[in-house]
Design brief:
The chain is mainly α. The chain contains seven helices and three strands; from the N terminus they run H-H-E-H-H-E-E-H-H-H. A three-stranded antiparallel sheet has the order 1-3-2. The chain is globular and about 60 Å long.
Length: 167
């Protein structure tokens, strides 16, 4: 591999490319139903998070759907404009705002989520249950390890990310 002599780095790059390809393949299987309902995956994540956890603050939702605060505000604004969520000030601390499902939002996510879950299961059906568990454990370990020593953002990193996002 050009400029890389370390076998561990070559193996890591190979695994990284496979991870990205697998992610894109799974997303290609699950996104059509989400898009058909006029939602993005992040919007679905917000609705699903609130469905399963109850009303959540912006910070809690940001951790749940793994997006920036600025993007999350835009996502919630769009869901609110569609009448799918409402923002409610917490009576015990008026500085805090929680996002709740509206009646329409609850009806949509309760109807959509079971099909979405089946789409995910179908997309991952090449793996048996033990392999899915193993994959989940490995991905958790990878995610935790990657956050331990985050690389310093550099121009080279930004250019590489830009390049990868256009593939």
């Amino acid at each position: 591999m050009f400029g890389i002599d370390d076998p561990a780095a070559v193996a890591a790059i190979s695994a990284y490319v496979k991870l990205l390809r697998a992610t894109r393949a799974v997303m290609a299987r699950v996104e059509p139903r989400i898009i058909a309902h006029g939602l993005t995956t992040t919007q679905l994540g917000v609705l699903e998070g609130i469905l399963h956890k109850g009303p959540l603050t912006h910070r809690e939702l940001g951790r749940k759907v793994l997006t920036s605060a600025a993007n999350l505000t835009d996502v919630i604004d769009k869901l609110e404009a569609r009448g799918l969520v409402v923002r409610v000030r917490c009576p015990e601390d008026r500085r805090q705002v929680k996002v709740e499902l509206s009646v329409c939002g609850r009806a949509l996510i309760e109807r959509l989520f079971p099909s979405h879950a089946h789409d995910i299961a179908d997309a991952m059906s090449a793996l048996n249950p033990a392999e899915i568990t193993q994959l989940g454990n490995l991905l958790r370990k990878l995610g935790m390890g990657a956050t331990q020593n985050p690389a310093e953002p550099t121009i080279a990193n930004t250019e590489a990310e830009d390049h990868l996002s256009t593939r």
